[in-house]
Specification:
Elements lengths: L1 H40 L27 E2 L6 E2 L2 E2 L6 E2 L24 H5 L9 H6 L5 H15 L9 H21 L2 H11 L13 H17 L3 H27 L3 H24 L1
Helix pairs in contact: 4-5, 6-9, 7-8, 7-9, 8-9
Length: 285
């Protein structure tokens, strides 16, 4: 009798368990079907990449994809934006978190963007022919306006009451913006920087294979030394030298437009010599 009761209990338990499992499976299937559209519509966040670094050389025609960003504080995601009518990615305006309840200063990517991408992102966000051909010719008034606008937002004085992280970011970015501006405002340092970007560096020992030009430089140096305190002679030499500097600048721009990096290098070296003459003249005045 006891064994029979145990068998009945076992049978009832098995039936109840089977019924419970069956009910659970039906519930799970209904839940899976109901939630399936949400699973399909879920979008994965893109992998963060760097854009327009300052490489040692450029030998790859593939342009880097611009990254989206996540706020370091609230983790708000800001995707890359698109340039109107061109469907080309550009750097999003992301100095500050777009979450209005957060709005903290954001770090720059690593490595930092090149100077052109930092100050003129809508024009030169990538290392491509557009940058190579046109970036050397800079509107100095526009460059100064952009620089001042960024410094007004990033200056450390604006972050004295903020967190330590924001103060550090402010100092770092303000310094980088200042360095970019100082480099791009001067045609000589701008040319040197562009050549470095495309792997054509100029060292202190780099010379120029134009004997006639070098002889002309030596003659000018001698004229400056012999002029002593003759203001009229010094002013004339300075005026003539400025004309030559302007010619060198135009030559650099033309070479970059034609993708002639070697020609741009030679014209930049000429400008270096002419700038040395300018320094000697200023010491005399």
């Amino acid at each position: 009798m006891i064994n029979r009761m145990n068998m009945i209990r076992t049978t009832l338990y098995s039936r109840n368990t089977t019924s419970t499992i069956h009910t659970a499976l039906q519930s799970f299937q209904k839940h899976s079907i109901a939630s399936k559209p949400n699973t399909i519509n879920h979008q994965r966040k893109p992998t963060v990449q760097t854009i327009a670094p300052l490489p040692d050389n450029i030998d790859d025609s593939i342009q880097p994809e611009l990254p989206g960003t996540h706020c370091w504080k609230c983790h708000h995601y800001e995707p890359p934006s698109l340039v109107d009518n061109s469907q080309q990615l550009q750097i999003p305006s992301r100095l500050f978190c777009k979450n209005t309840q957060c709005a903290v200063l954001q770090p720059l990517q690593r490595p930092p963007p090149n100077h052109f991408a930092l100050l003129m992102p809508e024009k030169y966000s990538q290392l491509n022919d557009e940058l190579l051909h046109n970036a050397f010719q800079v509107d100095l008034a526009d460059l100064k306006r952009r620089y001042r606008g960024l410094q007004q937002m990033l200056h450390p004085d604006n972050f004295t009451t903020k967190s330590n992280q924001e103060r550090l970011l402010s100092e770092e970015q303000s310094t980088l913006v200042n360095k970019a501006y100082q480099t791009l405002r001067d045609p000589l340092t701008r040319a040197q920087y562009m050549l470095d970007m495309y792997g054509v560096g100029i060292s202190e020992s780099t010379s120029i294979n134009e004997p006639q030009f070098l002889a002309q430089i030596m003659d000018i140096q001698e004229s400056i030394e012999s002029a002593e305190n003759d203001v009229q002679v010094i002013n004339q030499i300075k005026s003539d030298n400025q004309v030559e500097i302007q010619k060198a600048e135009k030559s650099i721009a033309a070479c970059f437009r034609q993708s002639d990096l070697d020609g741009a290098k030679q014209a930049t070296i000429k400008m270096q010599y002419l700038r040395t003459i300018d320094t000697l003249i200023n010491e005399k005045q």
